[in-house]
Amino acid sequence: MITATGLELRAGSRVLLSGTTLRVQPGDRIGLVGRNGAGKTTTLRVLAGEGEPYAGDLEHGGEVGYLPQDPREGDLSVAAKDRVLSARGLDALLRDMEKAQTAMSELVDDAERDKAVRRYGRLEERFAALGGYAAESEAARICANLGLEERILTQPLSTLSGGQRRRVELARILFAASEAGAGGKSGTILLLDEPTNHLDADSISWLRGFLKSHDGGLVVISHDVDLLADVVNKVWFLDATRAELDTYNMTWQRYLDARATDEKRRRRERANAEKKAAALQKQAAKLGAKATKAVAAKNMARRAEQMLANLDEERQADKVAKIKFPAPAPCGRTPLTAEGLSKSYGSLEIFTGVDLAIDRGSKVVVLGLNGAGKTTLLRLLGGMETPDTGSVVPGHGLRIGYYAQEHETLDHDATVWENTRHLAPDTGAQELRNLLGSFLFSGEQLDQPAGTLSGGEKTRLALAALVSSAANVLLLDEPTNNLDPASRAQVLDALHSYTGAVVLVTHDPGAVEALQPERVILLPDGTEDHWSDDYLELVQLA
Ligand SMILES: Nc1ncnc2c1ncn2[C@@H]1O[C@H](COP(=O)(O)OP(=O)(O)OP(=O)(O)O)[C@@H](O)[C@H]1O
Ligand SMILES: [Mg+2]
Predict the structure, then answer these.
(1) Whose CA is closest to atom 6 on ligand 1?
(2) Which atom of ligand 1 is nearest to the CA of 454?
(3) Spatial contact of 274 and 308, defined as CB atoms under 8 Å apart
(4) Do 418 and 290 share a structural domain?
(5) How far is the CA of 116 from the centre of ligand 2 (A)?
(6) Which of 33, 183, 266, 426 has the maximal Cβ count within 10 Å?
(7) Considering only CA atoms, which residue is closest to atom 11 of ligand 1?
């Protein structure tokens, strides 16, 4: 059980939450929702004991498995499989067993070999006693279900993509939490921040099943409404406009209805306040005409002003980005061509002999299963990585805008302003300010270091930086991850009316529908085809 009392959370000078009591109990499956930047990640970090609240007390009983929104740093030299097994301390034992095994086969001295054999026997006994064999296959099963193939598990974390590393972390946490099945203790509380990012449709549906049957307590932050509808039995709604957290002890569908009713009531209250303010203003104007009532009139007018100002503040905080991608810089007919691209990592061939030509203003979707090399292809096109064979040929006037899934294009130490400024040196300050404003960055937030932004805010900034440079070929890798539904709709809208060329990698069918692609590239073969809606099914599978 986790209990937080008198909780106050702040971000800079902004109050995110105050005087709140939160409790996570066995059997709870809580969906934590709210707009980008509302403070969901901050709340979960504090519940996990990894962040200090501004004020309040936290009580922890039992194990907690926390999946942060960003991939964790840490020792990246360990193999992925060991990272997962380390959740139950089995990794060290396995390593020792392997050592003893090598010794057994290599030693020539009989006495020493016998020693190694005995040592192996002892280790093996312990491993078996700890349920090691069952655990190992269980870990392998969880990994497979999360789309982590055998070959990936033997690689050190440092060679994995951010998305793969996050899946390893998720596997590790779920492996630890599933100990109950092996006859051990149960009751791990799972705190998961956007667990479905980087997962394909099969993995997501498996994860849903896992979470649905987890009864040790769960708080999940997700923009995936299907997952919420399927899994949660309580909802915490974090409202940035009021710095409050509303608890709804009900399923997702009931919550949606209750929220709608609450919103309606608030709108009604707002309308009433507006009416009252208007009446006050009218009265004040009337009274103001009489010299003897001037003071009373002034007070009335001030009260009306205050009422209206409060209302404005609320609306401001609830604003939705009106995102518009600026016009791309002029370029030749085919700004980007690639010939015979091949790429391997070690002995693993990702793809070979891929040709493609991106015409001005054309829209292309890249499809392929997990590991087929979609991100790799974008990185080659963007010049972030060099191909083993073949080449990327820039056309006349090419300006590439590369959006990385992991926001690696952002300079985390630089501010929001600096991150866009250097990409658009020719843009006037006011123009840039307007552009950032349309991505909902203004005031103090322009000076905030990008590394401290929330996940959705980072996505917004990376997209703003990308288009501020008047790029004419956008390479987009999962651009809708982390966005709340309202912001996602805005980004898709902007994408829809963008006149430059786009090469898109996504699991989000809505993004493909918004793009209305003409062509599709199928990896790993690099086959090109005209887009048809039959491919839409593949998008989710990919
Ligand atoms: N050092 C800081 N200075 C100012 N603001 C900060 C700082 N650190 C975080 N913030 C702000 O705190 C707010 C809450 O961030 P948090 O990551 O908790 O949001 P979130 O609800 O998880 O959003 P998302 O849905 O985008 O992941 C954000 O607006 C973020 O920019
Ligand atoms: Mg977050």
Answers:
(1) 11
(2) 17
(3) yes
(4) no
(5) 50
(6) 33
(7) 11
Q: How far is the CA of 453 from the centre of ligand 1 (A)?
A: 5
3-state secondary structure of 44: helix
Amino acid making up residue 402: Y
How sure is the predictor about 197, in pLDDT bands with cuts at 50, 70 and 90?
confident
Distance 245 CA to ligand 2 centre (A): 15
* The model scores a pTM over 0.70: yes
Residue 481 structural domain: 336-539
Which of 304-308, 310-314, 331-335, 502-506 has the least mean pLDDT?
A: 310-314
Q: Are 303 and 379 members of one domain?
A: no
Q: Which of the four pLDDT bands, split at 50, 70 and 90, describes residue 313? A: low
The atom number, within ligand 1, closest to the CA of 457 reads 26
Q: Name all residues whose Cβ lies below 6 A of ligand 1.
A: 11-12, 16, 34, 36-42, 69, 448, 452-457, 482, 484
Domain with residue 490: its CATH number is 3.40.50.300
pLDDT beyond 80 at 371 = no
Written as one string, the DSSP assignment of 357-400 is EE-TT-EEEEE--TTSSHHHHHHHHTTSS--SEEEEEE-TT--E
- Of 65, 22, 63, 61, residue with least CA distance to 40: 22
Higher pLDDT, 230 or 293: 230
Instruction: Give the pLDDT band of residue 514 (cuts 50, 70, 90).
Output: very high
- How many domains does one find in the chain? 2
Report whether 291 contacts 298 (CB < 8 A): no
Model pLDDT, residue 387? 95
Distance CA 217, CA 188 (A): 7
Collapsing DSSP to helix, strand or coil, 67 comes out as: strand
